[in-house]
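Pilot study result, target chain (618 residues):
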Amino acid sequence: MAVSGDVSLLRFITCGSVDDGKSTLIGRLLFDTRLIMEDQLAALRTDSRRHGTTGDDIDLALLVDGLEAEREQGITIDVAYRFFETPRRKFIVADTPGHVQYTRNMATGASTADLAILLVDARKGLLTQTRRHAFIASLLGVRHVLLAVNKIDLVGYDRSVFEGIEGDFRAFAGELEFASIQAIPVSARHGDNVIAASPNTPWYEGPSILSHLETVPADEVSTAAPFRLPVQYVNRPDADFRGYCGMIASGTVRRGNPVVVARSGKASRVTRIIDAASDCNEAGAGKSVTLLLEDEIDISRGDMLVPPGDRPYVADQFEANLVWFDEHPLMPGRQYLIRTETTELPATVTELKYRVDVDNFAHEAAKSLALNEIGAANLSLASPIAFDSYRENRATGAFVLIDRLTNATAGAGMITHPLRRASNVHWQALDVSKASRAAQKHQKPAVLWFTGLSGSGKSTIANLLEKRLHAEGRHTYLLDGDNVRHGLNRDLGFTEADRVENIRRVGEVARLMADSGLIVLVSFISPFRAERRMARDLLEAGEFIEIFVDTPFEECARRDPKGLYAKALSGEIRNFTGVDSPYEPPETPDIRLKTMDKSADELVEDIHDWLRAKAYIG
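Predicted structure:
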């Protein structure tokens, strides 16, 4: 990516396992190229006395370990970005954490990098985290790898140690499709082969770290790539001006170019291009611009402007590679928020195709992904989006998954391709609507979702309520957890993944029944808030009524109507809610039934009164 004149910019990351010397290497680069100001050097000497790990020497790692916690622990936690330049090139380096729990930060740094410096401790060789970082770098489109075999001084500058590690890595990385791999023996602490050849390794005839960084091809954003402008803002200061603002993700746009809205296919032509300073005739990738079109067409934030002859995919289902960041495992069937370059909307992992063993790239069958695991999955979105494959466009082919309850970033994804069925399956227009079906029954459709521990009284109360409604002429249906497991969900067990799928299926069935105009009573433990939220989101506003049957665990265990608590507490059955599997009670249920205070008949009366007061029944 050109910066000014003939000087190019290289974005690179340092990565590898914890304590392999990543921060020290960057500190050494800055120190030996004399890019540290005098006041910085003085502060570094002071910090080295307080937090250093190198005796009386300056601890160069402290130049980039900026957080107090990092200095106290001697590890990198956050991504530390530094800019520096030499006469030959400008650089932005991201020093990323090696600790397993901060893998998400490493992925963040790799997402925009052209090259990865992968450090390996010469005493330890390749570790699982080394392999994981190499694999993630490959997934995230990093094209070049510099394998820095660090602490070579601690093995006596042994050539055979270096060549053994280099051979192991090349054998491992053969399937990762890096454009280049350069291995260099290094002592970041003492500066061997960092900016110049070291006399301690006369057997090594390759470039130094700095020399390689200055000469490796920078992966420029090609102007030949298809034009993509994700619209971030519609600027409408007055009736005569309508501009579409965003940063060009790839390609080039010129005044007069035809463009289309990717999702709708509406076409127009570019009449003006405005950058930060003024009007211009053309603009390329990385430029923030405002485009004006000759036609007033429907465009909003989240749309993408593209050339008519080279459009992205538009689909609501695709396959993607996933890197999982959350301590709570990925569960197929659970609903997350997907955030892309253009939009944010609900998404569900419909199938986990496999998990990758980072030691040998084997594809393993799996029902979930744990923290830092990598796999491939199919995803289904609430509505279609425009995207490219990640291999073709890192900006428009990437996404993150957000946990809907905690708002934490749960995983990063790289789209491989749309699913064929996404373009073959369409909604069929029907003439009889939900409103007309409900009007025929003289009632308002609703899903009464009873949740609570086993033995709390859910089924008893739901059954009594349905009898009451049926006697009044209401059209109802009761979906009971045990009954459904004899048919629709007979293939599911009681693991967390199976419980998620259990509720997903029942939520879809309840939605169809509500669409037919019924009052649906659902009696399921449904232990997880995320799945109850998913079921609510399937329905129109006001149709989902969460009823928490609030019975203490001790009382449920005392009742034990099916003898399950006794078996669970003795270890005869596993994954029993409330014993060795969690129950997440509703935080703000629509109706809370305290079963210790009233009889089942009284609680039914309370629900009936609530439904009448809210006009669900007349």
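One observation from the pilot: Residues 1-5, 64-78 have pLDDT under 50 and may be disordered. A full batch analysis is planned for the follow-on phase.
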